[in-house]
Amino acid sequence: MLTLHDSLKFEKQDFDITAYGEVLLDMISREEAPLKECANFTRYFGGSPANVLVNMQRLENKTAFISRVGKDEFGEYLIETLENENINLDCMQYDQEEGTPIIFVNKNKETPSWIAYRGADINLQISEQIYDKIDNSSIFFTGSFILSKNPARATAIKAIDYAVKKNKIFAFDPSFRANLWPEGNKGSEIIRGLLAQSDFIKPSLDDAYHLYGQDHPENYLKKYHSDGAKIVILSLGKDGVLLSDGSTEPLHIPVFSEKVVDVTGAGDSFWSGFLTGILKGLPINEAAKLGNAVAAFKIQGVGALSSVPPLSEIIAYYDIQPIEGGNFNE
């Protein structure tokens, strides 16, 4: 059973992390206004799993991506971005009929609203290459967006089952929204079923509300654990995160920066810092601090891929404490 003070050790693999899911265009408004009132948008690289991988690659990890884009110019832009970041794309699929997905987002210092136009991402297919990438990775990561429709959902579940069977660390972002699922609220049963397979989950208060209804943060933690989640990192927005292992008192970690320009991709930045810490041998509670530190730099820029400093500067600036025998110097 994992506790907040545990650190994990990994055998050397070809890849630190393989992520499964969407890569898309984020069209972020230039105005801070309700989405229906926004008239001007700027194009940004987006998609939660893709954002996590780019930031993890920048934090000195080896990453691989399982995704699908349209055979169009927007898909070319996203692929070029991923290639420039040196992310392995052996499992990238190309759709001849459906286009690259696009999401319109309103610029916001709190929780943004968005409208998704799906496409090629829905058609992700299982392959032996996917199983091979999971075999040769330490962590498998996915989110809920890609789970909302088939065949991508069925492919994701096969990949998750395989990763769990192979004793890979499974990190899951359970951001359920009923309006994305043909089954509506019944889709929450699939999300809750995956919680028990997860080693780490990082829901926000909004995510918890959409899955369980209105409640207090401490009760949300209990509900996630009741559904089988091991380590729960509940994002409280400007109030930081609550970290829980279900057996000890939850740990509150405040935000590391009061300066907020745009929160798009802040959760993905947290994931990239947190999972980097886990891979580098930090105890889980210290890895969560590293997640907060990376997110603090992210929210001071616009777009999910606003720059962050090198890993060594982040841990020095925020006084992150590696344990003896960790591998931060590798």
UniProtKB/TrEMBL annotation:
Q: Supply the InterPro entries for this chain.
A: Carboh/pur_kinase_PfkB_CS, PfkB_Carbo_kinase, PfkB_dom, Ribokinase-like
EC category name: transferase
Q: Which PROSITE patterns match?
A: PFKB_KINASES_2 (PS00584)
- SUPFAM superfamilies reported in the protein's UniProt record: Ribokinase-like (SSF53613)
State which Enzyme Commission number(s) the record gives: 2.7.1.4
Q: Name one Pfam family in it.
A: PfkB
| Keyword Transcription assigned | no
* Gene Ontology molecular function: ATP binding; fructokinase activity
Show the CDD domains listed in the entry: bac_FRK
Which keywords does this chain's UniProt record carry? ATP-binding, Kinase, Nucleotide-binding, Transferase
Tell me the first and last residues of the signal peptide: none
> Domain Carbohydrate kinase PfkB, which positions?
16-309
Similarity comment text for this entry: Belongs to the carbohydrate kinase PfkB family.
What name has this protein been given in UniProt? Fructokinase
Q: Which organism is it from?
A: Halanaerobium saccharolyticum subsp. saccharolyticum DSM 6643
